Amino acid sequence: MTSSSSWRRSFGNVRSFIGNSMGGLRGGANLASWVVAGTLAYYLWVKPSQDLKREQQERAALAAVDPHRYIEKRKPIPDPQETGLIYGNKNTPQKPEE
After folding, report:
1. For this UniProt entry, which segments traverse the membrane (predicted)?
2. Over the stretch 58-88, which tens digit does the pLDDT of each residue have?
3. What pTM was estimated for this model as a whole?
4. Count of other CB atoms within 10 angstroms of residue 34
5. pLDDT band, very low/low/confident/very high, at 98 (cuts 50, 70, 90)
6. Domain ranges for the chain
7. Rounded Cα gap, residues 98 and 94, in angstroms
């Protein structure tokens, strides 16, 4: 009888340790917290690294097809002027129509 009670006690201790290590939550609250944590981890770490790896593979494939083709490595900086021309509008105030 002592072997079964020690087995139950050790199983209870392991179960208690696992429950406490997961924050002490049980049931639906525990499951919901793990779902939220997993979703955040996916969108903050996993997905950006997958996107970066996919983008690098696409660049490597383009470079392998034609090594002399120009590939944009940075996103273009938007032009702050109203017309969008580099040397165009000098931002002179326009006269209001009467």
Report:
1. 27-46
2. 888 888 887 777 666 777 666 666 655 555 5
3. 0.43
4. 13
5. low
6. 27-65
7. 12
